[in-house]
Each structure stands twice: as C-alpha cells, then as structure tokens.
Design goal:
- The protein contains 6 helices and 7 strands; from the N terminus they run βαααβββαβαββα.
- The protein is an alpha+beta fold and 197 residues long.
- Strands 1-2-3-4-5-7-6 form a 7-stranded mixed β-sheet, with helices on both faces.
- A hairpin with a 2-residue loop joins strand 6 and strand 7.
- Helix 4 packs antiparallel against helix 6.
- The protein is globular.
- The model has no long low-confidence stretch (mean pLDDT 93).
Length: 197
C-alpha cells in the first residue's frame, strides 16, 4: 500500500473508480451546493492542478491510494484517495483528513494503513500538531477506522459539510502529536498484530 501525489496519468484509473463506485460513494462524497455559483465539480485534471497549487502553497496534500494485492501478485493499482486539507499554520498547526476507498477492497485495512501513513507524515515530517477526521454519524465503517487508530471523538458538527444534496452533520475525531508518541504506523502494526493472534 502506498500514497502517491495525483498525476494526470492516473486520470483513467480515477475515472474508472469513480464510475464503478458511484453508488457506494454517493452517500459520503462531498457535493457542491446548488446555491453556490462559484464552485462546480472539477474534472480529474483540474483536481490535479488545484491539488498541486494548494500543495505548493502549504494548504493541502492530496494523495492517491495504491494497493498491490499480495495474494494475486498483481502490480499496484489505484484504489482510492486521501487528502490532507485545510492546513493551518501559526499557532494552530492543524489539518483535516478525508478519504475514500474502492468498494472492492473495503475492509482490508487499506484505509487505516493510508491514514496511519498520512498522520505520521503530517506529524513527523511536515510539523503539524493536530489532525482531524470528520465523519457522518451513520458511516460506521469510516468511524471504526478513526476509532481503532485511537482518534478521540470530540463531538457533533451540525450541518458541517454538503454531501449527497444536503448539509450533513459530522462527528469530529482528532489526534495530537503527544497522543501517538510511538507513531501511528507503529500503533497500527501493534493493533494488527494483536488481532492476528
């Protein structure tokens, strides 16, 4: 499993994933409110350009999630996305992370691994202090990802994000550097080892 910055050459794989997972993702993916005339759904190439611009400005780190199945010995393929967004510096040093995964590989530990890698990168390399993950209350699988990695539930954010045609409540989860002194990847490996015994 690896995280890679989006590239224009990934456009076909991204489009295939989006098309095949449309029903699976529609309940969770952010949408553009119709009353907002200044935003529209971007094409993949536009998303790549915007992501690069935002990354250069230190406000975002977009990643595509890649996975090579060891049981089939296939080469790595794109299976989702993870974005570190809303990066704030100064006295806050915080960001939020959002993610999605292909329904075909959901439940295989790919997103917890991706989230662990991203948290370690944010805390150990980038220098952030706090990471938030905001999840719809009814998205039990995504909530389990945050909870099993030790994210702390902080409360309900009312009408937080526009999703699937309306403003949806989200549960806020957060984590700070002192809460993962061993690193998130090490924590995740320890959790996996405990469950495999």
């Amino acid at each position: 499993m690896s995280l890679r910055p989006p590239s224009p050459r990934d456009a076909r794989a991204w489009q295939e994933l989006q098309t095949r997972n449309r029903a699976w993702l529609s309940r969770w993916e952010a949408t553009v409110p119709p009353e907002n005339p200044y935003t529209r759904r971007l094409t993949y190439r536009e998303l790549v350009r915007r992501g690069r611009r935002e990354a250069s400005a230190g406000r975002m780190m977009p990643f595509n999630v890649w996975f090579a199945d060891p049981t089939t010995q296939e080469s790595a393929r794109m299976v989702g996305q993870l974005n570190v967004a809303g990066i704030s510096w100064g006295s806050l040093c915080s960001a939020n992370i959002g993610y999605w995964v292909d329904e075909r590989v959901a439940g295989r530990g790919i997103i917890p691994t991706a989230l662990a890698l991203a948290v370690d990168h944010c805390f150990q390399v980038v220098g952030l202090h706090r990471i938030e993950v905001n999840i719809r209350p009814e998205n039990a699988p995504s909530r389990r990802v945050a909870e099993k990695l030790g994210f702390r539930e902080e409360g309900l954010r009312l009408a937080y994000l526009h999703i699937d045609g309306g403003w949806r409540d989200h549960i806020a989860y957060a984590l700070t550097v002192p809460e993962v002194p061993e690193g998130m990847v090490n924590r995740w490996r320890r959790i996996q080892s405990a469950h495999s015994v």
